[in-house]
């Protein structure tokens, strides 16, 4: 029995190695334009391969828009950008019915949501009605205009950017909506030597041209292959322990966290943590998941899924601190 499982893992490993060959190509192509920000580029790939969506948080000017635009060019896919503003309407996102006088009938005008890559810029500047129109499309991968339903093209990846909530004129995203994002990645300023390269490139005004190096067909095939990455039962148990520790910290010798957590991660958190770990293994060209894969993505998957109490806020404890404590306490298989 032992032998068969080894053979299986070996063949999975070979298949994944072959399927993931494009990852290096894609990363190289993106690095022509994106200086540094390796973490963000990696997370974009995890979202793409895991068929999830990404929420990026960071101050303006950190190449968030540029990153997803570059990714769509390198994949030869359609890209659209929606700038969220307080006066935006749901029809501005999904599309609307327009009356055609000549034909005495209504025609459908599709909105910018009909693209492979959609950048929802400053999502927390728009009111809840618009946010929910976008989030329905993210969840169902379909849009209803009038009485017609349209299935969205595959791959479909929404990258929403949000300004830090303490900035003026922002609406915090409701918990149920924020839970739809597979990952929430916080972006920091570039390092000093990276910023020097950014300044040089901009002053030259000569931007490298991004060439399509991967086809949509390859991406769809990779999305299927990711599901075949082997995950041992011990790793599944490790993921569930981390999730359950956010809900019942006292059962994991973390009683001091009980007063700091208002709600833990949902089952969507477990699914996304397992998927993201598989995608991370795939990017590292491995056909099986190891605990390090889980630890590499746990912050991005859980930081927006743990509610913190007023007590935690008063003590300046963030969801990041809570995740760190949990990950350090839970036994690694």
From TrEMBL:
The keyword ATP-binding applies. Keywords: ATP-binding, Nucleotide-binding. Residues 260-326 form the ChlI/MoxR AAA lid domain. Belongs to the MoxR family. PANTHER family: MAGNESIUM-CHELATASE SUBUNIT CHLD, MOXR FAMILY PROTEIN. The keyword Transcription regulation does not apply. This is MoxR family ATPase. It holds the Pfam family AAA_lid_2. Residues 53-183 form the ATPase AAA-3 domain.
């Amino acid at each position: 029995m032992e032998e068969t499982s080894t053979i299986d893992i070996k063949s999975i490993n070979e298949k994944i190695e072959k399927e993931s060959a494009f990852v290096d190509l894609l990363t190289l192509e993106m690095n022509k334009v994106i200086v540094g920000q390796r973490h963000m580029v990696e997370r974009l790939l995890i979202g793409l391969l895991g068929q999830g969506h990404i929420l990026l948080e960071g101050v303006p000017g950190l190449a968030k828009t540029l990153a997803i635009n570059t990714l769509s060019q390198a994949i030869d896919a359609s890209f659209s950008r929606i700038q969220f503003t307080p006066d935006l309407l749901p029809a501005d996102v999904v599309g609307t019915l327009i009356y055609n006088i000549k034909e005495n009938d209504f025609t459908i005008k599709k909105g910018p949501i009909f693209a492979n890559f959609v950048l929802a810029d400053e999502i927390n500047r728009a009111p809840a009605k618009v946010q929910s129109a976008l989030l329905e499309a993210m969840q169902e991968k379909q849009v209803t205009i009038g009485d017609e339903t349209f299935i969205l093209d595959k791959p479909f990846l929404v990258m929403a950017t949000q300004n830090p909530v303490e900035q003026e004129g922002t609406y915090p995203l409701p918990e149920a909506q924020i839970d739809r994002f597979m990952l929430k990645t916080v972006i920091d300023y570039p390092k000093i030597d990276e910023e020097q390269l950014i300044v040089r490139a901009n002053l030259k005004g000569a931007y490298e041209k991004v060439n399509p190096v991967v086809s949509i067909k390859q991406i769809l095939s990779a999305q299927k292959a990711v599901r075949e990455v082997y995950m041992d039962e011990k790793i599944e148990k490790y993921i569930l322990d981390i999730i359950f520790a956010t809900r019942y910290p006292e059962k994991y010798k973390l009683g001091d966290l009980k007063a700091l957590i208002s709600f833990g991660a949902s089952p969507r958190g477990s699914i996304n943590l397992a998927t993201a770990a598989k995608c991370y293994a795939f990017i590292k060209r491995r056909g099986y998941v190891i605990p390090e894969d889980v630890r590499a993505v746990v912050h991005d998957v859980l930081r927006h899924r743990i509610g913190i109490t007023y007590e935690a806020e008063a003590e300046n404890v963030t969801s990041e601190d809570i995740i760190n404590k949990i990950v350090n306490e839970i036994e690694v298989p």
